[in-house]
Design brief:
single chain, mainly alpha, two-stranded antiparallel sheet, disordered C terminus
Length: about 210
């Protein structure tokens, strides 16, 4: 297989893995209903927590992070040097899953998983920043911002300019996906971790995921 064909296979395979909506699957088989009709409607672990099922939320977090890590690690095992490409595929697969008409999550857990797989020291720093930000503020979005900001800085400190640029690109996308959260933080209406929130219609009349 030539280089371009291999790269294409890596991107497609990683995208399809990243697109697996574990939050929807876990809540459905866990008896918590359709996650897209609960709370904010988002498919991530934060919204799973709004079902009151902490175990399901933790499982969703692990699976969403795990698919990012697996995409990178498997790729590096069979196609060394293409791990970053796999990370891109898995990340955008989670954000825009074909199975859910491209309406996915916000990518934080998957980002943490792929960061750990690409460069575990940076991944640990990202994980620590995420936990610290979330625990101190009690806002999931603050934890997300802390993690994605800390990671490219850590990569730069480790003299990994390639990863610093990749993580910075991911960070900008995550911040964009959280733009509504930023607005609610500024006006004091952002729900804290574990708080339930009703879904609100977007301008097209469709339910808009919020956190």
């Amino acid at each position: 297989m030539d280089g371009w064909a291999l790269a294409l296979c890596v991107v497609i395979g990683s995208y399809l893995l990243g697109a697996v909506p574990f939050g929807v699957i876990v809540t459905r088989f866990g008896g918590a209903g359709d996650l897209r009709a609960i709370g904010s409607g988002n498919i991530g672990a934060t919204n799973v927590l709004r079902t009151g099922r902490k175990g399901l939320a933790a499982l969703t977090l692990l699976l969403d992070g795990g698919k990012g890590a697996v995409a990178v690690l498997v790729t590096e095992r069979f196609a060394p040097g293409l791990g970053a490409l796999a990370a891109v595929g898995a990340f955008f697969g989670h954000l825009y899953p074909v199975w859910l008409l491209f309406r996915g999550g916000k990518g934080v857990a998957t980002f943490l998983g792929l960061a750990l797989a690409l460069h575990w020291p940076c991944g640990l720093i990202a994980l620590a920043a995420w936990l610290l930000g979330a625990l101190v503020s009690r806002y999931s979005s603050i934890g997300a911002f802390s993690a994605v900001v800390a990671t490219p800085v850590a990569a730069a400190a480790f003299l990994r300019a390639d990863l610093a640029l990749l993580f910075l690109a991911f960070a900008l996308v995550v911040m964009w996906r959280h733009r509504d959260n930023i607005g609610r933080l500024l006006n004091g209406t952002e729900p804290r971790i574990g708080e339930k929130r009703d879904r609100t219609p977007d301008r097209f009349g469709l339910d808009q995921p919020e956190t």
